[in-house]
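Quiz preparation item.
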């Protein structure tokens, strides 16, 4: 399982292998292995072409007419495409806009305000920092209480833990579907059911799921969701995020940042604010149109590949890393800090080592680019559409070599 021939066999049998050539930089000799696609995906060749065409033809050619041509509809059009391709969401529930943090604020605040008689917001201690910070800020702002769930960084949030904390005072639960540190995949359907049985709402952060792990928001019965597009969707640095509001909540929830783009008649410019119907009400200011161009290219590729095939390759890639880590790195003081059950593991593997921070810096210098997470984690991120098994093998060899020297 550690022989280079094994990696070549896996690449030869990979039905998605040909898609790697669609990305820029995959043949750059200075990068032996890119293990950080779970933070920032590689750019697509099509993205460079579309950005050039957009600037020259749509922006340069149509100028401000582009807004009424089509740009005003992009947040909803791309939202519906994203919902169909990657989120398991019917049309009219997903909007592309803002950053993940801003959308978290809007939807968490809306959910809390809609339940004034419930005081608690539940969040786990190992959730992504911005989720925790936003929850703490809203709790202080609205006079609510944060109910912390102490989670094992490897095991993640479980239905049993949720059952212990939800009750008549719970307004909202905020969890990540795939944990940013360990890649633990939560049982979203069961956790959502438990929350609903207690009369509470759930918001799922899909930032480490979308584009690598199948998501079924409608089937889960999810209430709200937020996620970014610059990881497995290859939207680029600072790419816009997305927000999901289940149809049944669209007339009930009101996000707090009232801007002209979310108004019923945005060009009336009149007094007072009347929210637009449907998910468009989640919008506030001018949508980041230029930043949506790469997302469109990423969705095209994901649709072509199919999320089921992407997930199959993701499981094989992460399993390959686990096998190499057990054989090569465990004797050097590493331990696998991600679930070993592939059903409960997303598309990255965290390897813990006491000198992880220093090792990360030396690996980057050597051409292997992982991701350090305090206090001792090296995240090996595998983006199925752009990562080959041979790349994984070469990169893990270099991890062993650098760790052996130090």
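Solution:
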């Amino acid at each position: 399982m550690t022989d280079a021939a094994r990696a070549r066999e896996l690449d030869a049998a990979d039905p998605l292998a040909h898609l790697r050539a669609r990305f820029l930089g995959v043949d750059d000799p200075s990068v032996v292995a890119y293990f950080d696609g779970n933070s920032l995906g590689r750019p697509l060749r099509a993205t460079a072409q579309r950005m050039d065409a957009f600037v020259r033809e749509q922006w340069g050619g149509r100028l401000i007419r582009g807004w009424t041509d089509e740009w005003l509809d992009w947040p909803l059009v791309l939202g519906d495409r994203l919902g169909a391709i990657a989120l398991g969401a019917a049309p009219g529930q997903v909007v592309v806009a803002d950053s993940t943090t801003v959308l978290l604020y809007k939807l968490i605040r809306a959910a809390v305000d809609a339940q004034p008689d419930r005081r608690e917001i539940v969040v786990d201690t190992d959730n992504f920092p911005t989720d925790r910070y936003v929850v703490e800020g809203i709790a202080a702002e609205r006079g609510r209480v944060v109910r912390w769930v102490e989670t094992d960084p490897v095991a993640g949030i479980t239905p049993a833990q949720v059952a212990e904390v939800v009750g008549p005072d719970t307004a909202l639960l905020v969890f990540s579907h795939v944990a940013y540190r360990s890649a633990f995949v939560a049982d979203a359907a069961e956790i959502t059911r438990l929350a609903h049985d207690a009369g509470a709402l759930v918001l799922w952060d899909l930032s480490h799921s979308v584009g690598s792990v199948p998501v079924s928001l409608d089937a889960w019965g999810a209430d709200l969701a937020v996620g970014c597009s610059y990881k497995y969707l290859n939207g680029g640095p600072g790419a816009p995020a997305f927000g999901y509001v289940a149809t049944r909540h669209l007339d009930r929830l009101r996000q707090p940042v009232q801007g002209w783009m979310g108004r019923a008649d945005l060009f009336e410019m009149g007094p007072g604010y009347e929210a637009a119907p449907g998910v468009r009400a989640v919008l506030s200011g001018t949508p980041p149109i230029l930043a949506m161009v790469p997302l469109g290219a990423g969705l095209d590729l994901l649709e072509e590949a199919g999320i089921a095939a992407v997930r199959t390759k993701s499981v094989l890639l992460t399993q390959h890393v686990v096998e190499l880590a057990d054989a090569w790195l465990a004797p050097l003081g590493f331990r696998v800090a991600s679930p070993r059950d592939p059903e409960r593991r997303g598309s990255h593997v965290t390897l813990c080592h006491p000198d992880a921070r220093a090792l990360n810096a030396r690996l980057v210098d050597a051409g292997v680019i992982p991701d350090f997470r305090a206090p001792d984690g090296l995240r090996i991120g595998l983006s199925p559409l752009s990562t080959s098994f041979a790349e994984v093998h070469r990169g893990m060899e270099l991890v062993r070599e650098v760790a052996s020297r130090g």
